[in-house]
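Researcher: I've been going back and forth with a colleague about how Signal peptidase I might be arranged in three dimensions. Neither of us has a model we trust, so I'd like an independent prediction. The organism is Falsibacillus albus, in case that matters for your notes. Sequence below.
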Amino acid sequence: MAKKKNEAWEWVKTFIIVLAAVFLIRYFLFAPIVVDGLSMMPTLHNGDRMIVNKVGKPNRFDIVVFHAPEHKDYIKRVIGLPGDKVEYKDDTLYINGKAYKEPYLDKYKRQVDDGPLTEDFTLKDYIGQDRVPKGEIFVMGDNRRYSKDSRHIGTIPLSKVIGDTHVIYWPMKDMKLLN
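Model: Here is an independent structure prediction for Signal peptidase I. You can compare it with whatever you and your colleague have in mind.
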C-alpha cells in the first residue's frame, strides 16, 4: 500500500514540475500568437500561427509583436532602431542616409501600378523628430498601403515589445522560418 501511495505521489510531483516548466517557458521565453489581419501580407497571412521569442532585443527588419496603444497586440516589421534617421524616397527605404533593399516587398511592388507602394516620408512627417527616440523603434507592416503602424500610432517603446518571431508553424502548408 505504501508503495502505491509513493508511486502516486511521484506522478503528482512530476505533473507539477512539468506544469511549472511549461508555465515558465510560456511566460518568459516563448509564446504562441495568431496573426489577425492583412497588414503583414504577403509575408504573413491572416490566421497564421507563430511562435514569439521573448528573449533578446529586436533587430532591424525583425518581425515583432508588441502591445499597441489600442490595448491590442500588433505584429509589424522593425524598420528604425533607436537613433536611426528613417526616410522613404521613390519607394526606397533610407536609414541614416543609406538605401536598403526590402525583398519582402518585391511581390507587392510588382503588383502596384498607380504609384509607389510606400509613399515618400521622413520621420519628422509622422513623429515630429528627425530620429527614432532612444528606447523606441519605428515599425511598419509589409502591406504598406493597408497597415496601421508607426506612421499612425507613433514609435513603439521597447518596453511594449513582447518579442520577435521567425517561425510560422500553422497552417502546415505555410510552415517556414522567416528571415
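Researcher: What would you highlight for our discussion?
Model: I'd start with this: The first helix runs from residue 2 to 29. After that, consider the following. The domain at 31-177 is CATH 2.10.109.10 (Umud Fragment, subunit A).
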